[in-house]
Amino acid sequence: MKILIVDDEQHVREAVKLLIDWEQLGIDEIYEADNGDSAIEVLGNIQPEIVITDMRMPNRDGVELLAWMKEKGRKSKTIVISGYDDFHLVRSSMKYGGQDYLLKPIDPEQLMEALQKAKQSWEQEDQARRLDQQRSIEINQIKPVYRDKLFSTMISEAGAGGQVAVPAVLKEEFQLDRATECQVIILSTGMLEPQISRKFDGNRDLLTFCLINVCNEILKPKNNGFAFRYWNSEHEIIILLWDRLADWEDLLAQITEGIVKSIHGRFHYGVGHKQAFPTGLSLSYQEARAALKQRNLLKDNSYVHCSEQGFKTGIHSLSIAAYEERFRLAVWSGKEKDIETAVESFLENARLLPVITQEQIELWRFEYESMLSRWRQELAAKQDIQAGAEPSSSLPLYVLLDEQGRLSLELCRRELLNGLTAFAALTGAGGNKEHSIMRDIARYMEQNYNREVTLQDISERFYLSREYISRRFKQELGENVFDYLGRIRVEKAKLLLQNPNLKIAQIAEMVGYDDDKYFSKVFKKFEGQSPNQYRKL
């Protein structure tokens, strides 16, 4: 702790220093000033916890010094030592926050008691200030999530057809009382350009955070809208406009420019029509969503899609379900050539389609995953084991786009072949049951490192006992399952540690650890140093 002694008589200052056991009080820095002006000069350089001051001094006196400290919001506790038993001085001292008023000559016991009381008072107030600061930090962290929830609820309420309530907190923050119209624009992160997908693989939350920040940096100065994560859809950021709606095209151009500069990629927007605020929120949202889902993925279209530009033809005109029996026979044969022929028969008809929409791709994915799920149930029944809840493969939307963001049927072909071939290996067809299953398990962990992965999950997903997986995995890959997973997580964490805005606890959660202390232990095991030490280097 620090203390400042202010008195125009040097012998008084020396007496104060000699009378007190400062080490006992925990005060290790003592400063001096001979009048109020020089005290203010000292206070410009340090922040003492306690100030002892005389009242009668040349130039600026004690009363003026206390008044200055109160005006500047100084938190120091003040003790007055004066040779004058003057009611006016005592009252002035109390008015400006004086802790005690002691008379000269100085009584050591009284001074010690006053200092102890001042120290205790400062510590209590400092603890309260720290608690308030921590609460303020927590509120600021929760506030964006709370706003996202409120705006999302407004869209849901509008869709339910009931009375739409604009929360008071949003009215006050965004001056929404004056809003009469609104327009919803959806920024989609569901189908990403390959370079963006690779960059943010496993870090979709970070991608969403970056995009929302860029949008709101442009929207905030004019207060004509707000961007937020839509709680009812995993891959949608809502840009809600309520003012200057005629300028939406210029606004999107600015947002796109900001995103390209910061993320080096482009995203698709679905634009709804202007509607009444707040009752038309859901209608404008549905229009924007339809514009995205019905765009033709085969063509190099604009990144901005309005609802009247949606394509209606070709939706659901080709079904994976119609090819299920052909796929089943090929998979159970275990022959790669048969699987290739079955996949090619589907793609021949897909190439004839003039239009393939996102809605069509989503239907294919649903049919594909449902088909694999049924097969898993059948396989489990044959082997008298419990089936896993999810298929071993999926048809992710984002991996089906080429570098220009258009649908690639060649990539569709590759994904179908990989998925069906992997399933054929699980069935044991063709006498090659163990073929690359350990590699599939390794790939599964690489794709799911950011969530909880247990040996039981892997066992149920790949229909192998935990003991067999543990033994075979180490034989083929040279380390046990969880050392392999830990190494993947640590490598991802090393990249995230380069971002100074991310806390260690946040990084731990992003790479799959709920406990940041355990994460630090694992990190040190692989790197020989803690995450903080690595970040400093």
TrEMBL record:
Positions of transmembrane segments: none
Positions of the Response regulatory domain: 2-119
Cellular localisation: Cytoplasm
InterPro entries to which the protein is assigned, alphabetical: CheY-like_superfamily (IPR011006), Homeodomain-like_sf (IPR009057), HptR (IPR051552), HTH_AraC (IPR018060), HTH_AraC-typ_CS (IPR018062), Sig_transdc_resp-reg_receiver (IPR001789), Tscrpt_reg_AraC-type_HTH (IPR020449)
4-aspartylphosphate, modified sites: D54
Protein keywords: Cytoplasm, DNA-binding, Phosphoprotein, Transcription, Transcription regulation, Two-component regulatory system
HTH araC/xylS-type domain segment(s): 439-537
Family matches, as CDD domains: REC_YesN-like
Pfam families, alphabetized: HTH_18, Response_reg
Predominant location category: cytoplasm
Protein name as it appears in the record: DNA-binding response regulator
